[in-house]
Every structure is written in structure tokens, then in C-alpha cells.
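Figure-free illustration: sequence to structure, shown twice.
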Amino acid sequence: MYKKNYPSKRFKHTIEFLKSNVSNSESILDLGIENALTNVMQQHGYSVKNTKGEDLDMDTSTITNSNADVVTAFEILEHLISPFTVLKDIKANKLVASIPLRLWFSSAYRSKTDLWDRHFHEFEDWQFDWLLEKAGWKIIDRKKWTNPTKKIGFRPILRWFTPRYYIVYAERV
């Protein structure tokens, strides 16, 4: 089923990027529990399995035991204390990962009500590239996009011009 209406601009860009780099004949392990983006990937013909909600800083067994062709990590690595360990433990030879970029005009995201919904890292693009390189990945494709809001103010105006999201397609070196 092809769906043109996405829950968010981020989903639209993510699916377009995924489709340009990964065949839907390849199996995917998506880091994180099943979510709305998992459903959108499945609607586009991808075979997706998710991790089970385990603390990936402490337990990478689902990752190391997976035979998936591709691992996707959409908006999850910034929540980990040690994303290096997770990236190093991936057995698949292909990775598609997106992160929110660090914004100079906005502090790191931290939910006041959910202890798990916090960003331990907010990377600049060069930092994320370096992390991937150190973990044994070579970036083949990349893209950034903005996340404008309809609010009024200095920071909302900056969000129209400053990229907020960064996505990469990388292959194991």
C-alpha cells in the first residue's frame, strides 16, 4: 500500500531516503520498539522486525543475533549512553540511521515526564560521521532537512533555515 500522507515531514523524508538506498527485498532490523514509522515502512513493502524495548546500552543480543540485511536506527542513537557499542555490534553490512542535530540555539531535548525520553547526545553532523567511521562504517549517502514550526519567535524562525535532522546510509567497511 502506497501512502502519500505521512504523520510527519520526518517520516516522508525518511521513507524517501530509505527507498533510494535500500531495496524492499532486504530484511530490516529496526532499533527500537514497533512504532508508527515501522508501520509506514511495512506499508512500503519492507519486511521489518524491531528490537523489544531492551536497554540497548546494556543488552545488544537482539542486534548480535539478527540476520537482517539492513539495520535502521531512526531517532534512537541520541538516547543511548554508548551508541558506539551498538553500532559496532551490528552484523548487517548496511545501516540507515537518522539523528536530530544539535542546534546552537536550543538545548538538548529532555522530557520532564518520561525519564527514558531524553537525549544523552545531540550530535553535529561531523561528530556523527566520526562515530560511524570509528565503529567501522563508511557513509555512502546523507541528507539533512529542517523542521519548521508554526510558532512565532526567534527560534521558530531559525528552524525554517537550520537543519534539524540528519540521515545517513552507510556500509560496513
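We now fold a second protein in the same way, so the two outputs can be compared directly.
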Amino acid sequence: MDITIPTEDTMLELGQNLAAVLAVGDIVYLLGNLGVGKTTLVRGIARALGYKGRVTSPTFTLMNIYNSIPPIYHFDFYRLEGGEMQDLGLEDYLEREGISLIEWPRLKEADLPQEALLVEINLQDDDYEKERLVHIWAQGDKYQSKIEGLMKVVYPGHR
């Protein structure tokens, strides 16, 4: 699924739409260069799930917990090396009653679940002032149904 995102408000709206199809236990991997809007997307998800506090990238803290319903575990692995990920106890959070949103998942280096929803945000012409191109795809049947649900939310009337 590909979506063009012209503004920050549109990215927030995409996050709200994404929240409509997420459930407890879901994992979303967020891919894309620094500053493309990954945390803005997370902010949209958090707002839709009732979190009213500040949403920031956990680049230095590695994880933020947002007390929404269900809770959101927001990870950022940008500063980690592959071996360091083994010591995080990540599986403890992935098995809790929340939604895990993981920026910079480093899928080739980490022992992360293969089944997930993946959201890749790209700049157009390497220009931060232009619209973003968002590609969303699924790994696993559970997440494929979420893509179908998202299509219905983003494109009403889609069958």
C-alpha cells in the first residue's frame, strides 16, 4: 500500500487511521531516514488511542511508554549495535498487553519477530520540504488483514 503524505497534519491523520486497525500485541516497524516523520506518525497513533501527553522520539532513552488504551511501547534503536539488542529484554514488552512501535528496527541484526506491519517513509527527491511517500506492507497473514482494514479506512469505498 502506497500513500502520498503532503503535510505533517496528513502524517498525523495517517497515524490515526493506522491506530484504527491496530490491536494489543501488534508490532509496527518504522523505517526511514532521520526526520522523515516516523515520530509524527507515532504521535498520530498515540492521539487516536487517547494519549494526550508529549510524544517524542526515544533516541536516547531507547523506549517511551505512552499510557494510552492499549498502552504503546515506542522504541528507537538508531543508536544501538546489533549485539546490544540482545540485552534489552525487548521480548518482555512484545509479550505485554500493548502495541509496539519500533523505529530503526535493524531487522538484519536483531532477533525481532518476523511477523509485523512495516511502514517505510521516504523523502521525495531528498527534499524535506516536499511530500513524503509512505509504503506500508505486511509480513504474516495477521498483518495482511490489517492492510486490508487500513485500505478501507484510508480509501472509503475500497473493496
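Summary for the second example: The mean pLDDT is 87.
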